[in-house]
Amino acid sequence: MLPQLGKLDRATFDKIILSRLGKADKSVIVGPMHGVDAAVVELPDGNVMVIAEDPTFGMPVLMPHFGWAIVHICASDIAVLGVKPKYLTICLMFPPGIKEDVVEGVWKEVDEECKKLGISIIGGHTGMYPGMPYPLNGGCTVIGLGTRKQITPASNAKIGDRVIITKGPAIEATGILACQAEKKLTKKLGKGIVEKAKAYFFEMTVVKDALTAAPLAHAMHDATEGGLLNGVYEIAAASNTGVTLYEDRIVVPDEIGAICKYFNIDPLISISEGTLVLTATPQNSKKIIARLKKNGIKAWDVGEITKSKRLFVRKTGKKEKLEPVAVDPFWAAYFSTLEG
Fold first, then answer.
1. Domain total in the chain
2. CA 185, CA 4: separation in Å to the nearest integer?
3. Pairing with 198, which of 20, 94, 271, 275 sits 20 to 30 Å away (CA)?
């Protein structure tokens, strides 16, 4: 059965897509895999091109900063491969009757954020189409150029590596839900907590995190749908390794815990664009955490890459099998804020 919301699950991806990838080509170093953020292609000069593509659903809460979200979410998928994003193409689709200033506002923000990140916009498509309740990034493609030694795909974790995360879990879920349900949340939780939670909206990027950690990292991945636990699982699955993750090492900031508790969702499996998951040798892990903190990014060592078993150790000491997250609870919580 297909998921009703969000990305295809691993089993459906493997069944429908993985065996239908067109002509095989030896220049493809990293191709389509569930949980891998971008493709890597070897160029004739021996360098590599990293390519990622993402849609962005124009939910109402995103609209004041839709352009920001598009650029950072897509650029993050290049940065986690260890190279700087350089080029961008975009397909922006708007509903009929949209005001000109809305279209201009989105494009202005896309332009501004690309300039900040050093990205050139090299093509795309913009138009108005029926049947759409909100604007949609139908597909933003970002390209980066680098060397083969630079790349840090999710499939590159090594046995013995430490597992590091940045910022905490449920970054995207917290930022979006706090903005979307601000009035109700303020009455229940207070203005201070809600303002801190809303600030996570602009943490939905790992460009800075990834480019800071890249020189010393083996594998990197952005924890998106399915959240932190799914992101860690995807690294282990892509690398064909095991992993042991410890709940008591995962810091859940008070504001994130409060928002997730209000909506009755688990912060460890809720969408978390903005949380970088990476692996590195024990020695380099300490250096990476220090580098990240020097750049104002909180980071924690939360586990290790092992030979085969994939385990999640609860605070009680109970060991559970770490498995892919089938349904991200964020979506039901988000759509509940639109009711009435």
1. 2
2. 27
3. 94
3-state secondary structure of 336: helix
Q: Token pair of 285, please?
A: 């892990």
314 in a domain, yes or no? Answer: yes
Domain of residue 130 covers 23-150
| Residue 18 domain flag | no
What's the pLDDT tens digit per position in 221-274? 999 999 999 999 999 999 999 999 999 999 999 999 999 999 999 999 999 999
Taking every pair of C-alpha atoms in the chain, what is the biggest distance, in angstroms?
60
Name the token pair of 75: 């650029």
Separation of alpha carbons 2 and 273, rounded Å: 23
Single-letter code of the amino acid located at 303: G
How far is Cα 16 from Cα 31, in angstroms, rounded to an integer?
16
> 82-107: per-residue pLDDT in tens?
999 999 999 999 999 999 999 999 99
- The reply to whether 127 falls in a domain is yes
Last residue in a domain, options 127, 150, 173: 150
Please check whether residue 36 is in contact with residue 154, taking contact to mean a CB–CB distance below 8 angstroms: yes
Token couple for 136: 């949609």
Answer positive or negative: Cα dihedral of 85, 87, 91, 92: positive
- Rounded CA-CA distance 213/220 in Å is 9
Joined together, the tokens standing for residue 65 give 């900063």
Residue 13 within any structural domain of the chain: no
Co-location of 164 and 294 in the same domain: yes
- Type and span of the H or E element at 155: none
pTM: 0.93
Show which of 117, 150, 183 is a domain's final residue: 150
Report which of 58, 60, 38, 36 is spatially closest to residue 48, judged by C-alpha positions.
38
Q: Say if CB 20 and CB 106 are below 8 A apart.
A: no
Shared domain check, 172 and 116: no
Query: Does 313 lie in the same domain as 207?
Result: yes
Give me 139's structure tokens.
């597909």
- Domain check: are 207 and 227 in the same one? yes
The gap between the terminal CA atoms of the chain, to the nearest Å, is 29
Residue 40 has φ and ψ, to the nearest 5°, of -130, 130
